[in-house]
TrEMBL record:
It comes from Methanobrevibacter gottschalkii DSM 11977. The active site is at residues 152, 316, 349. Residues 376-436, 437-488 form the CBS domain. The gene is metXA. This is Homoserine O-acetyltransferase. Substrate binds at residues 222, 350.
Amino acid sequence: MNKESVGIVETEYHDISNPIILDSGETLDEVTVAYETYGELNKEKSNAILICHALTGDAHAAGWHEGDKKPGWWEMVIGPGKALDSEKYFIICSNVLGGCKGTTGPSSISPKTGKEYGVDFPVITINDMVKVQKELIDSFGISQLAAVIGGSMGGMQVLEWMVSYPRMMKKAIAIATAGRSSPQQIAFNTVGRQAIFSDSKWNNGNYYDTCEIPSNGLSLARMIAHITYLSDESMDIKFGRGLQDKDEISYDFSVDFQVESYLKHQGETFVKRFDANSYLFITKAVDLFDLSANDSLIDGFKNVEAKIKIISVDTDWLYPTEQSMELVTALNANDVDVSFSEIKSNYGHDAFLLERGQLNYIFSNFLSENVVDDLMIEDIATIRENADIVEAAKLMLDKHLTHIPVVTDDCKLIGIVTSWDLSKSIATNSNHLKDIMTKKVKYCHANDSIEEIARKMRKFDISCLPVVDEEMKVLGLITTDQISNLLS
Ligand SMILES: CC(=O)SCCNC(=O)CCNC(=O)[C@H](O)C(C)(C)COP(=O)(O)OP(=O)(O)OC[C@H]1O[C@@H](n2cnc3c(N)ncnc32)[C@H](O)[C@@H]1OP(=O)(O)O
Ligand SMILES: N[C@@H](CCO)C(=O)O
């Protein structure tokens, strides 16, 4: 552990009080969500980032569980000073619905039968997983996430969030993923499921009260899947045609090659950490994933509002760059603010779990943005509503101003007066500020992004916005000149 880590963490549990109505039409009662958080939620509840995990991940994304030898699975990007900085953001990661790491899944006890669900667990979708995450986010009283981020199946959840809850996030990053599962992706998952079904110990999903689990089937499913997470190049670099613990080939069916031993190891370690029935339900959810509407991703993305980053990996043949480009094209067609980055890596699909430098760089560039607070002028003149026009004109001349916020005695914004309004007063022969000021004044908040308010100013053709707090008290002003200076 070092100072860049969030340190010792614990998984927490949230019980959802209402039933979850699933896409299949079935309902799930008494759903529990396992989650972890890193950092502090700020007063405005505006700094939360939701991390969505991939197929076999869990809520433990960062830090260390007491006694563990390895940190959480995305330790490389989460922690003090990293792109997902726990000193700046409140980071939440939860285990998905259907999982086996604390959130309700097939190995949980059904409240109806008092026994493990097994294959009586309802078929779930990525949308159902996101519904459960939304319940967790609501329980914190968070009305908008600063960002939702995830890779692979986590990226599918990100895309689902963008479509199902378009106003619930400011930004979204979807990595090594697709808007709909391709036939090849479905094919690999179905072979994995068949491997489990063909293990007699699977016993139609009823193995929880026996001491035998379908380890052969599950480990075979993982070995097949794991090949798709690597690239030919990375296998060649890691193993070549190297032999495992021998100098000569053995002319039998024992393990000869390092790659055989490696895959065996991946299969064996997987069965110690994952439930076979969860594997069935989660891979099925991935297969069913399809965000297109009328067979078109352009139609599917028509309501997206967040600012989006799509990331692919150049050697990922499971979720190839072309699928990411399909997302970018569909988002662009909807005028969504979307950008794209391709990670250069020989790791293949799993690069999103390994490429520390590139991920930190892309994330921090995308997440860091200037907010109004960084730029606004704080030392500003204000004027009371009952002031006369001469007083406003003198103030403008003395302080070289073109805009003065009009405020109540306790400094709450009620209007704005501009040099143009003063010229108007001569033409209309008005003496009182309240007759000429703009009463329906547009304003912004200190934590609004510069991009957002620049758009607002362009839309309403205004050159200056008062900045107010939650009680409408004036904190400062921001002008188009400042924004132009920043951009130049
Ligand atoms: C995304 C989420 O949400 S979390 C889920 C992600 N986690 C996983 O998928 C866990 C399993 N996957 C892996 O380990 C993945 O390969 C990664 C991406 C996480 C790690 O990749 P890398 O650091 O490149 O590790 P690599 O693929 O080389 O595997 C290392 C393991 O293989 C073992 N290994 C390496 N060579 C051999 C060999 N010739 N024979 C047997 N075992 C071998 C290592 O001892 C090590 O074992 P350990 O993990 O039990 O300590
Ligand atoms: N290897 C990762 C990524 C799969 O997409 C996992 O098992 O979750």
